[in-house]
Amino acid sequence: MINIAIDGHVGSGKSTLAKGLAKRLGFYVFDTGAIYRGIACEYMSRNLGEPNEEIINDFIKTFEVKVKFIDDVEHVFVNGKDWTPNLRLEQTSVMAGKISPYPKLRDKVLSSQRDFAKTHDVVMEGRDIGTRVLPNADFKFFVTASEEVRAGRRFDQIKGTANAPTYEQILQDLRDRDYRDEHREVAALRPAEDGIIIDSSNQTLEETIEKCLQIINERA
């Protein structure tokens, strides 16, 4: 099996890159962030309030998460409920950023990620794929872009939707997420030592895909 790890900052375009790269290669694309968003949906549905270690440790005892591909689309089920339609809501993204750093929650979903990679050619994307989830991946890319570019992309995605935040709110939340991701004790966001940094600030999606494909073909 061939495993490609894609990590990067929120809003860097790593999800879109992973989908485009997987399509060109004929691989599955596995969005690990979708798992945490699905769990965040379940968490919010229970009205548990702001997460802390005690709440999270009790919470993880009461749910099971499964990932299924339906018509080649990744669906996240928590306790049998398909949360896929809610995964890209802004409140889901914010809560996922709050609960994902807790070590016991990350440990609970780690095995499902690795098991999938053992049996499928996959492009797997997240924030600690190359450093923790798939440290032996065949290729590791770390995608980034400037804060302003990333905030603008997110704003364009959700503008016009109900209760959409302003660009300034998105930019501040992005900075907060970056700080939490880069400074958490477990699975901190950083490039793998053997990872390749891809700056997408001034590149189109197609240019970014082509750059990664060139690297893969050269090394293969």
Account of the protein in words:
The chain is of the alpha/beta class and 220 residues long. The protein has one domain (3-209): Rossmann fold. The chain is built from nine helices and eight strands. It has helices at 14-25, 32-45, 53-59, 90-99, 103-119, 129-133, 147-158, 167-183, 205-219, and strands spanning 3-8, 28-31, 65-70, 73-78, 81-82, 122-126, 139-144, 196-199. The strands form two sheets. A five-stranded parallel beta sheet has the order 2-6-1-7-8, with helices on both faces. A hairpin with a 2-residue loop joins strand 4 (73-78) and strand 5. Helix 1 packs across helix 9, helix 2 packs across helix 4 and helix 7 packs across helix 8. The longest helix has 17 residues, at 103-119. It is globular, with a radius of gyration of 17 Å. 37% of the residues are buried.
How would you summarize the topology of this molecule?
Layout: E1 3-8, H1 14-25, E2 28-31, H2 32-45, H3 53-59, E3 65-70, E4 73-78, E5 81-82, H4 90-99, H5 103-119, E6 122-126, H6 129-133, E7 139-144, H7 147-158, H8 167-183, E8 196-199, H9 205-219
Parallel strand pairs: 1-6, 1-7, 2-6, 7-8
Antiparallel strand pairs: 3-4, 4-5
